[in-house]
Design a protein that fits this description.
The chain is α/β, with parallel strands linked by helices and about 200 residues long. It has a domain of about 120 residues: Flavodoxin domain (Rossmann fold, 3-Layer(aba) Sandwich). Helices cover about 40% and strands about 15% of the residues. The chain contains 5 helices and 5 strands. Strands 2-1-3-4-5 form a 5-stranded parallel sheet, covered by helices on one side. Strand 3, helix 4 and strand 4 form a beta-alpha-beta unit. Helix 3 packs across helix 5.
Amino acid sequence: MNFGKKTAAILIIVSAVLLVPGYSFAQDSLEVSGQAKEDTIQQEAAEQPKESVKQGTMEESGSNQPVEKVTKPVAKILIARQESDFKHAVALQTKKLLKEQNLAVECIDIKTLKKKVSKKYDAIVIINEVRAWHLNMHTRQFFDKLEQSERKKIIMVSTAKGIDWKTKEKDIDAVTVASEMNTVNEIAETVFKKIALLVKLD
């Protein structure tokens, strides 16, 4: 008898729910399903890694146009030196300073200078000796074939008995020094600063 009453009560509750206007089990099912789908999409979006903007690829302003990364060409420096302990030391120290700036440096014996094409270099350093008030023969031969427009990239360091010697070469940045080993670093620093101006180092 108690069982019958409980069954009757359940039937009455179910009937009352079914009689509620606009109520639908299907509607509840769709709403629940739709909510679950929305929750899943939001969860997937949260788990999706954010797209990183690579430097040089997209503008920070949000533009979708690709931006080409401009790479400044590496400056090429040629150092030609006459053979002596002093000149060799100046060349090596100058090369060291230039390498620290990631510049391309080529060191050669001055005897092979005339074979070089000046247009391939952004700056040319010549370390030579002046004898009887005349330039080294190999330096002279190089200057004879040098175009006027190329002369401004030349930095010439000359050793002479009289440091007041001045070159007659026009448009050449020339320095006259004494062959003293305790001045190597100072001279190399001077040459480096001149090159920095030529190649426009930052």
